């Protein structure tokens, strides 16, 4: 259960084509993340799958059945939004049971499902509270609980953690990943945050202006970005990108090298430069190095701490084996 295929799915709002025809397969049990900059069509694509928007063209199949014209409630999918949309006057128990009450499900079965969901989400002790008496993370769990009790073929999440503070986001990220391991249900998760995508996904779909730029596992995208957009989008801090003689020398229009694939030395190396700003994270230090003849500063990762000061002379040596080469259209050169 939970295999979803999109075939030539397209969406236009009036004259504006937001999603040009697009093909995508989401396998049963997969955790798929749609990632891309704001406005690239992630929510629209999710809403098309949910049935909250009608497709302009193409076909959506869920477990082999054509679902293109099936109303949202009949698709067997459950959506979790950024705003939790809980009923403030209802207890946690009633909020979670809400879709089951609407479906007039047998009371004993309702209780069984709510109890099971609360246990999975560590909400057992909070079932009689109102949403106002819960923390942000707990409220988000109630919203997820309300999705779980429907026992959907797939969960659809639209930026569910964007309202939470940084520490809580990391915690909830782990909880959702853990939930996926336990339930083994298909999950489609939308975010603009590439770190969320990298840490949670089995498969990442990188979108730009409604186009799929690349589909692959997090490490596929990290090690083999198909084009400059993916190369620049995936990875933090970003891949260093250089044009000019250094690229031409390597038969490319642009070369890319990640901060951890550059060796830093005070005595010798391929590129001479000066230390600019350093970011000390304790575990790592990121040096921004201004190299002779290179326009932007290069980011270099060094493990732990290194005693270098602003303005010091250094040499950088990129690992040529780890170098990415792109042509003048921004496409990877094999
Ligand atoms: P994302 O979720 O990636 O930030 P959206 O899917 O919300 O992007 O939006 C993609 C594009 O579609 C944007 O340019 C947005 O303005 C446009 N759009 C979204 N919904 C509508 C709508 N109901 N009517 C017209 N344009 C819309
Ligand atoms: Mg959105």
Task: Describe how the helices and strands are arranged.
Layout: E1 4-13, E2 16-26, E3 31-35, H1 42-50, E4 57-62, E5 65-66, E6 77-80, H2 92-102, H3 107-120, H4 136-148, E7 154-158, H5 166-183, E8 186-191, H6 194-200, E9 203-208, E10 211-216, H7 218-223, H8 228-233, E11 240-243, H9 245-248, E12 254-257, E13 262-265, E14 271-280, E15 284-291, E16 298-303, E17 313-318, E18 324-326
Parallel strand pairs: 3-8, 3-9, 6-7, 7-8
Antiparallel strand pairs: 1-2, 1-4, 4-5, 9-10, 11-12, 12-18, 13-17, 14-15, 14-17, 15-16
The protein binds adenosine-5'-diphosphate and magnesium ion.
Residues 13, 18, 36, 38-44 line the site of adenosine-5'-diphosphate.
What tags apply to this protein structure?
single chain; about 325 residues; alpha+beta; Rossmann fold; OB fold (Dihydrolipoamide Acetyltransferase, E2P); 6-stranded mixed sheet; 9 helices; about 25% helix; globular; binds adenosine-5'-diphosphate; binds magnesium ion
Q: Which strands sit side by side, in order, in the main sheet?
A: 6-7-8-3-9-10
What does the average pLDDT come to?
A: 94
Q: How is the CATH topology of the largest domain named?
A: Rossmann fold
Task: Characterize the main sheet.
Answer: 6 strands, mixed
CATH class of the largest domain: Alpha Beta
What is the SS-derived class? alpha+beta
Tell me the overall shape.
globular
Note the gap between the termini. Answer: 37 Å
Helix content: 25-40%
Ligand kinds: adenosine-5'-diphosphate, magnesium ion
The percent range for strand residues is 25-35%
Contiguous low-pLDDT stretches (5 residues minimum) are: none
Structure summary, number of beta strands = 18
Number of helices, counting only DSSP H or I runs of 4 residues or more: 9
CATH architecture identity of the largest domain:
3-Layer(aba) Sandwich
């Amino acid at each position: 259960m939970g295999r979803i295929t999109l075939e030539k799915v397209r969406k236009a709002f009036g004259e504006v084509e937001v999603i040009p025809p697009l093909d995508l397969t989401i396998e049963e049990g997969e955790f798929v993340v749609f990632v891309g900059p704001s406005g690239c069509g992630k929510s629209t694509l999710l809403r098309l799958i949910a049935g909250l928007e009608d497709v302009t063209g193409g076909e959506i199949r869920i477990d082999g059945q054509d679902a293109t014209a099936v109303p949202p409630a009949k698709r067997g999918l459950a959506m979790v939004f950024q705003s939790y949309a809980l009923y403030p006057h209802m207890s946690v128990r009633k909020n979670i049971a809400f879709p089951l009450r609407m479906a007039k499900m047998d009371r004993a079965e309702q209780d069984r499902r709510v109890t099971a969901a609360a246990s999975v989400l560590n909400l057992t002790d909070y079932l009689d509270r109102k949403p106002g008496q819960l923390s942000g993370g707990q409220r988000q769990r109630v919203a997820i609980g309300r999705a779980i009790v429907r026992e959907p073929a797939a969960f659809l999440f639209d930026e569910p953690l964007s309202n939470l503070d940084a520490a809580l986001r990391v915690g909830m990220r782990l909880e959702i990943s853990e939930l996926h391991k336990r339930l083994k249900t298909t999950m489609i998760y939308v975010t603009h945050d590439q770190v969320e995508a990298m840490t949670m996904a089995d498969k990442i779909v990188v979108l730009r202006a409604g186009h799929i730029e690349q589909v692959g596992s997090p490490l596929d995208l990290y090690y083999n970005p198909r084009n400059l957009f993916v190369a620049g989008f995936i990875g933090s801090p970003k891949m260093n990108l250089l044009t000019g003689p250094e690229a031409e020398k390597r038969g490319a229009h642009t070369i890319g090298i990640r901060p951890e694939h550059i060796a830093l030395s005070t005595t010798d190396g391929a590129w001479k430069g000066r230390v600019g700003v350093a970011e000390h994270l304790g575990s790592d230090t990121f040096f921004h190095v201004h190299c002779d003849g290179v326009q932007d500063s290069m980011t270099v990762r060094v493990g732990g701490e290194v005693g270098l000061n602003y303005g010091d002379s250094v040499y950088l040596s990129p690992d040529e084996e780890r170098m990415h080469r792109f042509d003048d259209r921004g496409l990877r050169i094999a």
